[in-house]
Specification:
Aspartate Aminotransferase, domain 2; 6 helices; 4 strands; binds pyridoxal-5'-phosphate
């Protein structure tokens, strides 16, 4: 993710993990400056599997400057039992517009490589982020996989049906053209 952000010209500041391979929240806070736009926290962490306690994360967020957002990557959420040390920010949100929670269907639904996932945040931030969304970022085959697994909403389902028919029409047209050759 840092590499991807760097290609857009963003300055990246990396903070090493602690001796127990966990996020160093104090170290991260110390590195946040007035121009820090986004902090990334992977919880549960990949690849070290460490858990960042909910209490510590809430304290961390409360100390972030107002313009800084935090992306909490919960890609591995389904592999952890909720406890005092792990509480999802999606299942139990806090009232803070700066929090973005990210999940993916790659892991628990065995859809690795299809790149179907979602983010949840405040309406204000979602609106801001939508301006950077590329059209067709989720392709028709992936949407179909999401529909088959019952993961996507009716709106996306309609898109998938339309997309499937469009693909079918293209395949039929291609076959007709090939036969004529
Ligand atoms: C921590 C973490 N977040 C996000 C992702 C992205 O998942 P995907 O692009 O497959 O939806 C991965 C993929 O391996 C991951 O390990």
């Amino acid at each position: 993710m840092a590499r991807y952000a760097a290609t857009t010209g963003a300055g990246i500041v990396s903070v090493p993990l602690t001796a127990t391979f966990a996020h160093d929240l104090d170290g991260m806070l110390a590195k946040i400056g007035p121009s820090t736009g986004l902090v990334y926290v992977c919880n549960p962490n990949n690849p070290t599997a460490s858990l960042t306690p909910r209490k510590d994360l809430e304290t961390f967020i409360s100390k972030m400057p107002p313009n800084c957002r935090v992306l909490i990557d919960e890609a591995y959420h389904h592999f952890v039992d909720p406890s005092a040390s792990y509480v999802s920010f999606l299942d139990h949100p806090i009232d803070d517009e700066r929090v973005i929670v990210m999940r993916t269907y790659s892991k628990v639904y065995g859809m690795a490589g299809l790149r179907l996932g979602y983010g949840v945040t405040s309406p204000a931030l979602a609106k801001q982020m939508n301006t950077f969304m590329t059209s067709g970022s989720v392709n028709a085959v992936v949407v179909r996989a999401g529909v088959t697994n019952g993961l996507v909403t009716d709106v996306v389902r309609s898109y998938a049906i339309l997309a499937t028919w469009t693909i079918a029409a293209w395949l039929i047209a291609a076959r007709v053209v090939m036969r004529r050759r």
